[in-house]
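Appendix B, record 7
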Amino acid sequence: MQFLIDFLETKEITETKIFEQLKCSVEEAEILRHITRKHIKGNEENSVFLILDELFSTEGYDYILKLPLVKNLLDLGWIVQSSFAQVKTEEVSQIELVNATVMLSKSFERLLEEGSLEVELPQSSPYTDHLEYLRDQFHRIELYQKISTIRHNYKKRSLSIERLEKSLKML
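Structure tokens (predicted):
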């Protein structure tokens, strides 16, 4: 939980231990911090309008200019849209996001908890029996399944897909 506490308490967001891994702007990281604070206090789902209202000026329609930040966080896979229907983030317009609710993704929660998203691969050594080979093949299938799920929900070249494909090549 040290990464979570560091992310919440470090004054400058760029100095947090996980900022480099986020691959997002300072404003986007501040949005993530705001959602994380609410999540820790028991509010899992958050209205995009309220997030933008609390963080940025809502005089006139200034908050609309911040919608691309939320859209990018969705595309990166750090937040997910709360919806009963399966929604591809590529198909969601920015205007739809005004009244949408979002929550932290499982991968972002894992990053906060463990400080890394690297998949631990088994030791690479020659197989001594068929079971070891099958275990690796099942692990490979599991990685393909995760990639398929991410491709369905996020944009084609999200950070999660790149990380999983790298793990697949190493296997």
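Remarks on this record: The domain at 2-114 is CATH 1.10.10 (Arc Repressor Mutant, subunit A). The first strand starts at residue 46 and ends at 47.
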